[in-house]
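Example record

One chain of 146 residues, shown exactly as stored in the release files.
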Amino acid sequence: MTRSRTHFILIAGSLVWLAAIVLAPLLQLEPVYRFFSLICHQNPLRSWTLAGTPLPVCIRCVSIYIGFFVALVFSLRPRTAVLKFAILASLAELLLQWTVIDWVVLRSFTGFALGAAVAPFVRIGVHEMIETHIRRSRQGALRNAM
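Predicted structure tokens for this chain:
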């Protein structure tokens, strides 16, 4: 599978993920809320609302997913230093939230940065996993043919 095909599949999957988040409150999609409850605390006080209903994920989670999508769309390159910074910024924001101030803008920014920093590494990792699987499948087929 080509890198561009893997990239397209990840962008499409990320777009579907974001669409589910936005459509859940608009269409009252309870199964979407149940699904996201497995990965997010869904505290309505810590979530943005749409049509008067909280999104099925908190502000931090939706910011991570938007950052991930944007990084895929713009084909950002993996940068270890950026990933380390995003992780440290997220941890610092979490400590600030617990001890000093809970600031939505900071939570949104650090979530977005973390999602954007992780996406290029995920894209490469998924592509390598697919390529390894295809290579092993072909090798197995060749062995069976002999």
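Notes: The chain has five helices and two strands.
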